[in-house]
Amino acid sequence: MNRVLISAISLLRKNAVPQPYNDNTFDAMLSNEACAKYLLRNGPRPDVIIALCTTESLEEIEVNDYSITSYGYYKGAVKEYCRTNQIPIPKIRMIRISRREQTSNHYGQTLKQIMEILWEYGKDSQILIDTTGGLRNISIMTQSMARLLGYYGFPDIKAYYVNYMEKRVFNDHTDKQLEIMEAIAQFANHGTVKQLAKYFQDSKYEEIKELLAAMQEFSDSIQICKTEHLPDIINKRIFPALDHVSEIKDARANREDISALQQMVVYIKSQFGWNGIDNQITPLTLIEWCLNNGYIQQAVTMFTENIPKYLVDAGLLTVNNPQKYRPPLLHTANEMHWLYTVLIDSCSTQMNMGEVIKKLDGIKHFSLQTVRRNLPDFSLKLTVEQEAAFKGFLYYYVYIKRAIRNILNHASENEKPLTNPQRAEFRMYGVNIDDLTPSNISQNLTDALNLLKQCIPNTFGG
User: Fold this and answer.
1) Which of 22, 24, 70, 212 is deepest in the core (most CB within 10 A)?
2) pTM for this structure?
């Protein structure tokens, strides 16, 4: 395995003198020189050094009465240190950064040359990055390069920083913090935990193991569209595990970058709909999370399967005699049966759902008065002002369940086409039935959620 050090050569000062670094273990005039000597002495010892040189670092300057370039001094100092200490001299490969790249602040050509050299030595090479030397924009470029190398599959990347004031060389955890923030964002935005699990695979903390297990369950469930228990996974497993991580006080936590994870706890929660107080994440907020992150089929499944139970949990629906409404035809909870039967419009009356369906003439004639008269065992906690919003929600629910979900599940061949009066009835309530693109499906779901939110008690949350 080769070890490759990447270093942007800084400029020598005219009055530069050797300075002692790391408790007088070596002297250096350049910060890059200090980083190279530190690694050559303490390891990991580089076999190759890629020296990034600006035009200025290749120009001769007068230093203590003799002319030399900054790069020439660096190269000579490294070789002399190796000879004095009987250390194998690393191969030094210079890349010239053009003045055009410096002025435009775009380093595409430099990055290309770096990658060409690294590919020569293979992906199993250990990459060592000196983040100190050179101009600030070049230092930022080297940190960005660390991310690029990670994307290309270089598994072992370490960064180092030279503190000129303290005259010490440190491990630079900037790249690691960027890595963990990116891994956290991948979970919060896409539900994938692979990168985060890899980052903490050697963690000894039970709190971290608990969190990763909960996140993995969520990730598995969302990927296979198993949405029934997603709110419970968030509320009962992930959020408590995040709280446990926040409570880690062990001094070793900083070395494992747990502090970076602790700082991101609020961000993770907020991405799933947490509002900063002790609220529960509901199917509504998770459906919105799915839509925001492109999980259209998962959003549709959660909408059709989780919303019925949510109406009961939110206190919107109460069933006074549940056993009466649990026929063998439906093995799910009574509130699911109620929603499947009450939310029936004229386009699906061919379904034989029992006596309850016959008592209601579909959504067209839905009203609080009709429910009270024909379904005395059911109670809807709605005001007269909320009645229209709930009726609109019913139209969306029926269309999304009967049409959109079947199309996504490739089960639409058994569906009867809508008649013109039925199409007009759906359109009257704003349902888009003409074009089942992802954007229109998302909009239908969003409109349905907005109507339902108008009916949910504020104390329960949306």
Assistant:
1) 70
2) 0.66
